[in-house]
Design goal:
Length: about 230
């Protein structure tokens, strides 16, 4: 019997440029709800891939703020509303090579494919549908399924479990340092793509690329075969 492999895709910053939309929604909410001006995308970088609350906290700390739990809950709720509004009126094309890589992986009898994101069901599903990802045909894990967010490995361990594949036989595709750490903590290999940050910040990954157009299925098998 042939060996089965798992390929796990993060969503934000991997499938489409949602980080730009996340930042726009967050900058607006910081101005509207908190009265904080001069917020920029880079202020949220420490929270990339860690879920909405940590993303918001990172932006607040960049401006010397420690928000209360009530403020965090309100900001994350309204931020998601802003995000979904932007998504409803603007196209969100997938990054080059994403759908092609998914399609080839899904046609390979030795590969299983999963989506694993810290985003909520509503938010991540909106992104997947906007980018025309056939997520209904994959294992789909979102932030509502787990207690611990990245860099904790719970998200990727659950995805591997649902695919019925040992994490060591999985490759995770990520764009953020926290996601890379989570993949490695799960025992998986990790391919990092420089859509959201530079290669230096992703150096813990097994392979760093500028675009998923560069990734072939043979490269994924070779990474797992190097265990």
């Amino acid at each position: 019997m042939s060996k089965l492999y798992g390929l796990i895709f993060d969503v934000d910053g991997v499938i489409a440029d949602t980080e730009a939309v996340n930042a726009r929604a967050s900058i607006k909410i910081f101005a509207d709800l908190l009265g904080v001006k001069g917020v920029v995308r880079k202020d949220f970088e420490a929270g990339l891939g860690r879920g909405a609350e940590e993303y918001v906290k990172a932006g607040a700390r960049a401006h010397g703020l420690e928000l209360t739990e009530e403020q965090i809950k309100k900001v994350t709720q309204v931020r998601q509303e802003y995000f979904l509004k932007i998504l409803s009126r603007e196209p969100l094309p997938p990054f080059p090579g994403v759908l092609e890589l998914m399609d080839k992986a899904m046609k390979d009898k030795n590969l299983r494919v999963a989506i694993a994101t810290s985003g909520t069901l509503e938010k991540s599903r909106a992104v997947l549908e906007a980018a025309k990802v056939p997520y209904q045909k994959m294992v789909y894990i979102n932030g509502d399924h787990v207690k611990n967010k990245k860099p904790d490995p719970e998200l990727f361990l659950l995805a591997a479990e649902r695919m019925d594949i040992d994490p060591v036989n999985c490759v995770v595709i990520e764009d953020a340092p926290n996601g890379v750490q989570a993949a490695k903590a799960a025992g998986a290999k990790c391919i990092a793509v420089t859509n959201s940050t530079n290669a230096e910040n992703l150096s813990e990954a097994d392979l760093v690329c500028n675009s998923l157009e560069q990734i072939k299925l043979d490269m994924i098998r070779e990474l797992i075969g190097s265990n």
